[in-house]
Design goal:
- Helix content is 82%, strand content 0%.
- It has five helices and no strands.
- The termini are far apart.
- Helix 1 packs across helix 3, helix 2 packs across helix 3 and helix 3 crosses helix 4.
- The radius of gyration is 17 Å and the shape is globular.
- With 118 residues, the chain is an all-alpha fold.
- It has one domain.
C-alpha cells in the first residue's frame, strides 16, 4: 500500500491539474488527465524513491506524457489522447533514466577537446 503522504500528493496534483486545465481552454484535458493517471501509476510503483523525487518524477512524467500523446496517436492504433498520454507518461521515465545514465557517462572535457582537434 502506498504511503498516505504520497497518495495525498498524487490526489492534490491531479486535482490541481484538472482545475488548471479548465481555466486554460487550449489544453487537451483528456491528454492531461491521461498523463496524470500514467504519472500516478509510475509514482505509486517507485517505492524506493523519496517523496520529493517521486513528485519530480511525476511532474516529468506528466509533461512527457502530455507532449508525447500526439505522436503516440500517430504511431499506434490508440485513437484517443487520454490513453495515449497515459502510455507516454509510463514510458517516458525509463527513457529519461537511460538518457540520464548516458549523460553521467559523458566526459565533457574529452568531447570539447575532440571537437577542437578536428
Amino acid at each position: 500500500m502506498a504511503e498516505p503522504t504520497t497518495s495525498t500528493a498524487v490526489a492534490a496534483t491531479a486535482a490541481a491539474g484538472v482545475g488548471l486545465a479548465t481555466l486554460i481552454p487550449w489544453i487537451d484535458v483528456n491528454a492531461l488527465i491521461g498523463a496524470i493517471f500514467g504519472a500516478a501509476v509510475v509514482a505509486m510503483t517507485k517505492k524506493e524513491l523519496r517523496p520529493a523525487a517521486r513528485l519530480l518524477g511525476m511532474l516529468l512524467s506528466i509533461i512527457g506524457g502530455y507532449i508525447s500523446a500526439p505522436e503516440i496517436l500517430n504511431q499506434t492504433p490508440i485513437t484517443q489522447t487520454g490513453p495515449a498520454a497515459a502510455v507516454g507518461a509510463v514510458l517516458i521515465i525509463p527513457v529519461l533514466l537511460k538518457a540520464l545514465a548516458q549523460v553521467e557517462k559523458l566526459d565533457l572535457g574529452t568531447l570539447l577537446k575532440g571537437s577542437k582537434g578536428g
